[in-house]
Each structure stands twice: as structure tokens, then as C-alpha cells.
Write a sequence for this structure.
């Protein structure tokens, strides 16, 4: 457990951390977030004493960090900073073994650990271990940055906007990887960001800071549902909005008339149904109306044979929502996956309807102009 | 030509050796001093703000003046030349070491510190390797300077290739001038190439092609 007790920090005349007290239980992913200059990075860096606090105490498992040797303290806490963190004069292997080296692990143990870690992120040892940072992409570099922090198996990892400089797609992948590593290895992670999406995606607890104070510390769900005050609400922007609106759920705006076909239907038959209704795919169900998947005209054209049934052409791995799902979720799915529609299922797995882009825009129009759906 | 070598061969050879000795000893000494001073100065930027400009001013004092002044105190001994040349060798290396260390991005220093490195470990494992291209650049500059400054040794009667040049100039003997000038030029180029080879060895692979 990490505990901050009445921690204060002043730069010149400006008090950047005001009497901060909070606790972080073991194994939690805690995200410090807030507008720039809110003190989140300072809060993070005081833990491994990269910044010394003026007054107050920080305890890690009951031990006051101020009473520890700062170098020893730092090597026992993983630390990941923005992209620049890897040492350009060292290979991947050397970079990862920096901390084990400082802790005087023998060569073999370091080597074994490097292999182990590279495997963890599926980067083959032979291919990557001897590369230099400038021979890799930003995403790969930061992956190594994370491994370096994990190398000496510290129970706590600090991350200071580690993915800020990456492109959105790489960032997304790395977020997933870090989250899954954290859960698998049961680490306590303290993560600084100013990106609310990132916070909501990763955090077990979000600590919202402003002007050196904690405005709210809660689960992502909690902070979305009841923002502590206007500053938090404003910062969360669109995220809060969708949740505090009286909830529109999927069954409110789905089209109940769905063009369906059973798996036994033949390919040409399906094409003619599609033509008739001017759609480019069909929802496939079994005889009890249970949802099976969808079949698109492209798939039939590509792989279907005249006279065969569509059974083998059905895509089963399509996103679905339930009737109670918030409409926002369906909206996000449509947007992110660039789909034309998403299927709505009943609790028993039968097809209840579909939400198309048209039904979605009608629903939006109703919110904006007050029409009925 | 043969006549020239018969007459001056041994002397020329001796002059080249003396000259080379001056250069190697003073650059080696200068390098060590400059490296240590550069590291110390980079740790206390506040003091460096005053020290570095003062050093730059010193560097503009002509070598002749400096050797002359030292000569008054120390007399006609090789030490006079070595001290003067060493001091001049220090400047470029010191300046480059200092700027090289200072230019190491704050991010790397913080990463080193955050990993638990002490100030010394950070210096040896991160900062010096990253500053190496700059430091070697300074060494190269110093060496080439000192090859030409070492000509001044003969001004106070201490040999080196300067002997040939001065005598040649004062007796209007072009062959003697050339006999002094060509070896010094070759020496400057040769040592420069040697340092370029060294540069390839000591600059970390990951930095090549990234910084000059």
C-alpha cells in the first residue's frame, strides 16, 4: 500500500501540491489526471524522490520513503517516462538490464530476464535484443521502456505520460498491453495522463487533480456518473455528457423490421432477397429465431457457390448489443468499426432489431430538435 | 633532392620526432585535464556561466605571447613548450566536453536517475557516452591546432619542425620552409585520420548517423 500523508510542495511562491493525502491499495491501476500544471507529475515524482517534498510523508508498505536511500528506492520502483526514456547508446538488451545491472544481478540472470520479458510482449529475442533504440519504431521503443521498468520485478511502476508521443493506433495497442501486463503480474501502477480516454480505459481508480489538490478519487464509473464539481465535469466533457443524459437505450431507437434469413437458405436466394429489399447483408438466424451471424453480399460473391447454402459464409464474429445497452455504446460501435448497422438481441439471444446509421441519426436529430424517434 | 636529405635527413627526422612528442604529450595531458574540468563544470552550471567565457578569452591570446611569458618564468626548457601547448589543447576539448554533457537531453538524465543510477553511474553509463561525439570532435580540433602551434617551440630554441620553417624564412631558403611545412601538414592530416578511426571505435553504435 502506498500512502501520501499531508504532502506539500512549493516552487518559489507557488504552492503546487497542497496538503495531499490519499492511499493506493496494492495491485491497483491508478491514473492521475487533470489539466496541465495541476501537480500530477509532481505527485508521481515525489514517490521515487525525483522531486523532494517540502513537508508531509509518503509511505510504501509502512516505510517512509524519506528514510530510504534515494538510489535504492528508485531502483526498487519501475519508472517509465515519455518516449525519450531509452538510452540511445545501449541496445535493447542493455536498456532492459539497466536496473538489474545496478542491483548487481549476475550476467546469466540478466540475460534470462531479458528473454523472459521480450517474450512477454512477443518481440523475438534474436530479432530485437541487439537493436539500438533508433532502429525501432516509437511504439516498439516504448514497449522496451515498459519492459525496462518491469525488469527488476518491482511491485510498483510509475508511468509519466508514457504514450503521449505515440500515434493513436499504437497508443491503443500499448494501453491494452500495459493493462493486461498489470493484471497478469499484479503490479501497482501509478499512471499520469491528461487524456481522459486513456484514464477511463486503464484505471481502477482515477485521481482527478487540479491546482495541487485532489478534486475526486473514484472508479472511472463513479467519476463519470457523479463528477465532484464543474471542473471535473468540464474536463470529462463528452464522456460525462453521455452518461448523465437521461439514458436512451438501444431498444428505443432500433428498427424492428429486420431482413432475416435462415442458415439453410441458398446463396442465390439470399442475393435476390437483398436485391428486393435494397440491402447488402442479411441477419442469419436458426429456426428458433436465435441469432447466428450475418452474411454480406460481398462474401457471397466472393466465396459462395450457386446452389449451396449460406451456412459456411456466415460471419459470426460481429458486434451485437442488447436491448438495454445505452444507445451511446451502439453509436460508438458503429463509428469505430465503420459498420452500417449493429444487431440488437433480446436477453434470450433472439434478434430484436437492428440499429443502422439512419436510425442513429434520427435519434440524434430527436435530441437536437426534439422530434420523436 | 638526395643532396638535401644527405645534408638535413637526420635533422629533419629528429625535428619530426620532437614535434610529434610535443603534440602527443600536450594533447594527451590536455585531454585528461579538459575532460575532468569539463565534467566538473557541467555539474555546476552556475559557475560555468562565468568560467567558460573567461576561458574563451584566454583562448584568443596568441600562442606566441603565452610562450614568451612562460619563457620568462621557466626558461628554455621543454616544459615551457609543453605547458603552453597543453593549455591550448585544453580549450577546445573542455568546451566540447562541457557543451556535450550539457546537451544531453534532460529526459535521458532523468531516466537514468529514475532507474536508480547515482550521479557517477549516470555520468559514466549515459552522459559521457552520449557526449562522446562532441568530445572526440574537440579532441580532433585540439590535435590539429597543436600540430601548428608546436611550430612555435623553435622560437625559444626548442626544436621541432619550426626550426626548418624559421631558418628557411630568415635565410630565404624555400626548400627548408617546405621541408618544415610538408611534414607538419602531413602530421595534422594523419593525426586527424587517426582520430576519425578512433571516433568510430568509441562512439556508441546507436548514436552513429544521429549526431555529428
Amino acid at each position: 500500500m502506498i500512502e501520501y500523508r499531508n504532502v506539500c510542495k512549493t516552487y518559489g511562491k507557488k504552492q503546487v501540491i497542497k496538503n495531499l493525502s490519499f492511499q493506493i491499495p496494492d495491485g491497483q491501476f491508478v491514473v492521475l489526471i487533470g489539466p496541465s500544471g495541476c501537480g500530477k507529475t509532481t505527485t508521481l515524482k515525489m514517490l521515487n524522490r525525483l522531486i523532494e517534498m517540502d513537508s508531509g510523508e509518503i509511505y510504501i508498505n509502512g516505510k517512509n520513503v524519506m528514510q530510504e536511500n534515494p538510489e535504492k528506492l528508485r531502483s526498487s520502483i519501475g519508472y517509465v517516462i515519455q518516449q525519450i526514456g531509452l538510452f540511445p547508446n545501449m541496445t535493447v538488451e542493455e536498456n532492459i538490464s539497466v536496473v538489474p545491472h545496478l542491483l548487481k544481478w549476475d550476467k546469466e540472470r540478466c540475460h534470462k530476464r531479458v528473454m523472459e520479458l521480450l517474450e512477454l510482449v512477443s518481440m523475438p529475442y534474436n530479432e530485437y535484443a541487439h537493436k539500438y533504440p533508433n532502429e525501432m519504431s516509437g511504439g516498439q521503443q516504448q514497449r522496451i521502456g515498459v519492459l525496462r521498468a518491469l525488469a527488476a520485478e518491482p511491485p510498483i511502476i510509475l508511468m509519466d505520460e508514457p504514450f503521449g508521443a505515440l500515434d493513436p493506433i499504437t497508443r491503443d495497442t500499448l494501453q491494452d498491453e500495459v493493462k493486461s501486463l498489470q493484471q497478469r503480474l499484479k503490479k501497482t501502477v501509478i499512471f499520469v495522463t491528461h487524456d481522459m480516454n486513456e484514464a477511463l480505459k486503464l484505471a481502477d481508480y482515477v485521481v482527478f487533480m487540479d491546482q495541487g489538490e485532489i478534486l475526486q478519487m473514484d472508479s472511472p464509473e463513479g467519476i463519470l456518473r457523479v463528477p465532484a464539481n464543474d471542473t471535473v465535469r468540464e474536463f470529462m466533457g463528452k464522456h460525462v455528457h453521455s452518461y448523465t443524459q437521461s439514458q436512451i437505450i438501444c431498444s428505443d431507437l432500433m428498427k424492428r423490421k429486420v431482413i432475416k434469413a435462415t442458415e439453410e437458405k441458398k446463396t442465390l436466394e439470399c442475393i435476390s432477397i437483398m436485391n428486393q429489399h435494397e440491402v447488402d447483408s442479411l441477419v442469419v438466424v436458426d429456426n428458433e429465431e436465435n441469432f447466428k451471424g450475418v452474411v454480406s453480399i460481398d462474401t457471397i460473391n466472393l466465396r459462395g457457390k450457386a446452389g449451396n447454402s449460406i451456412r459456411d459464409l456466415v460471419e459470426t464474429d460481429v458486434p451485437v448489443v442488447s436491448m438495454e445497452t445505452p444507445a451511446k455504446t451502439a453509436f460508438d460501435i458503429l463509428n469505430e468499426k465503420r459498420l452500417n448497422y449493429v444487431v440488437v438481441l433480446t436477453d434470450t439471444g433472439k434478434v430484436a432489431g437492428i440499429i443502422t446509421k439512419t436510425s442513429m441519426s434520427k435519434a440524434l436529430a430527436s435530441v437536437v430538435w426534439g422530434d420523436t424517434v | 633532392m638526395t643532396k638535401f636529405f644527405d645534408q638535413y635527413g637526420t635533422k629533419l627526422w629528429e625535428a619530426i620526432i620532437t614535434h610529434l612528442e610535443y603534440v602527443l604529450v600536450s594533447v594527451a595531458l590536455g585531454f585528461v585535464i579538459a575532460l575532468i574540468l569539463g565534467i566538473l563544470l557541467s555539474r555546476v552550471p552556475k559557475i560555468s556561466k562565468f568560467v567558460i567565457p573567461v576561458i574563451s578569452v584566454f583562448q584568443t591570446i596568441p600562442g606566441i605571447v603565452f610562450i614568451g611569458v612562460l619563457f620568462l618564468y621557466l626558461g628554455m626548457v621543454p616544459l615551457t613548450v609543453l605547458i603552453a601547448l597543453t593549455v591550448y589543447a585544453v580549450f577546445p576539448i573542455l568546451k566540447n566536453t562541457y557543451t556535450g554533457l550539457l546537451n544531453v537531453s534532460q529526459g535521458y538524465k532523468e531516466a537514468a536517475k529514475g532507474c536508480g543510477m547515482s550521479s557517477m553511474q549516470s555520468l559514466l553509463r549515459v552522459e559521457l557516452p552520449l557526449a562522446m561525439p562532441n568530445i572526440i570532435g574537440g579532441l580532433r580540433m585540439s590535435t590539429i591546432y597543436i600540430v601548428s602551434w608546436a611550430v612555435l617551440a623553435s622560437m625559444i630554441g626548442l626544436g621541432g619542425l619550426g626550426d626548418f620553417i624559421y631558418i628557411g624564412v630568415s635565410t630565404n631558403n624555400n626548400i627548408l620552409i617546405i621541408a618544415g611545412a610538408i611534414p607538419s601538414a602531413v602530421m595534422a592530416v594523419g593525426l586527424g585520420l587517426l582520430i576519425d578511426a578512433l571516433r568510430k571505435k568509441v562512439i556508441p553504435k546507436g548514436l552513429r548517423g544521429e549526431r555529428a
Summary: Chain A touches chain B at residues 48, 50, 71-76, 79, 81-82, 84-91, 98-99, 102, 132-135, 148, 158 (CB under 8 Å). The longest strand of chain A covers residues 14-24. DSSP finds 17 helices and 16 strands in chain A. Chain A has a mean pLDDT of 87.
